[in-house]
Write a structure and sequence with these properties.
alpha+beta, globular, 146 residues, 8 strands, single chain
Amino acid sequence: MSVSASIDIKLTVRNGIISKVTLIQKLLDFGWTFNDSGKITYLPIGDEDKFDWQSENISVDMLLMILREKVQRDELLGIVMTWKGTGVGGNILLKKTDELTFCLTINRRTISGSNVTDVNWYLVKLLPAFSQSDSTVESFSYEEHV
């Protein structure tokens, strides 16, 4: 049986606007990586909501350049991120500069003895990344469909 789980995070940004690439950088700084089985997976420039994910051996600098170009085009940013060396993660989608969706698609952590997502495992690894001097978490919601 397939499970669909996601976390939506809404931020309050102090002193203006924070870029979508900066939000991704906050996750990197906190311990998330672009490692998707040894590759970097992302939505390419011009994807136009087709969700034609690309998985390539590119540098982080190249990915950040692609993401900045997508921001200039006002495109949806989509990247795969995993937590440190765990291989646990998912797809992160950013349309607005103050909202992101984390789809828990890679080695989803569950509560022991069940198929229910251990949402706390994710929250303690996501929310603090955005609770810094220039932003704070305004709200978050979690959905799971079994």
